Amino acid sequence: MINSTTVTYEIKRKILNFANKLTHVAGKVQAKFVSDMIYGLIKSKSVLLSDISDALMEPIKKIDTIERLSNNLMTELDPSIKVNYDNEVKKVIGRSPVILVDDSDIIKPHGFHFDSLGMVRDGSSPKKTYEKGYMVTEMVAITKRNKQPVSLFSHIHSSTEKNYKSTNAITYEGLDKVISLLDERATFVFDRGYDMNGLFKYMYKNEQDFIIRLTSKRKLFNKGKWYKATTLCDSRKGKIKTKVLFSGEEKECYISHLNVQITASKKNMCLVLVYGLGERPMMLATNKKISGKEDVINILRLYLSRWRIEEYFRFKKQAYNFE
Fold this sequence. Notes:
Helix content is about 40%, strand content about 30%. The protein contains 10 helices and 12 strands. The protein has helices at about 1-25, 30-45, 50-55, 60-75, 80-95, 165-180, 195-205, 230-235, 295-305, 305-320, and strands at about 100-105, 120, 130-140, 150-155, 185-190, 210-215, 220, 225-230, 240-245, 250-260, 265-275, 280-285.
């Protein structure tokens, strides 16, 4: 019991110290609100205000605690809090960070009165059916020390919101914000859902490195001719042999690479072809410099680090009943 009490005290002290780093110039009201929310979320493992209020154990009626937290949630936070958070993040992601970008669905099948509740495809459903819910666009950086994801941009959105444009508009908004806080060029990693000409143009315009997994529909320019990406895949077998962690197990694969262009730009980029990790070769487009074998293998490893953001989504949904 004594050890349990000591651990609880140490965790609470660390939470309060972290909250103070964010709110030391924001005023007492917002400082208390932020520390209460962080502590309440972690202790209750829930995003519900009623559960967070129980965790705080204030010597007042529970409904009063809920009302206080709710009123603060409807008030804009002091801008200094975001600035301080970004500064703390930059300390742990280091120079030239890796940024993972992805969307996830938040399903609310039994919800009826949530604000702007829309229809989204349930990614966890075998049939990918549509359910009531929201989309969440996330951008996380991988920490240098222990390779853990830390949030840079997180936005819940729905197509039923007033003045809503598109998921792509939210993505570019997030990219603008993330790039603005970075001091150096970063490497952004995207899955197949982001294989679009506009994104390639955006990354070149903003002078950022990228690794984007291509779809089978993508056409590429190589040695004076246009080819389907799959045609280039079938014309090669992979000369570089390596082992990587894929789907929870170590697998052997073979990699090829060649210079290509896409319809969105006349700039040269590299197509990295990976054989042996699935029924079809994996196709990765990147503008990162490749000077030899190790650079090619590193491109694949950086892309496979995407599983960190998948774990991040799963943790939020399971540990905090986010869904």
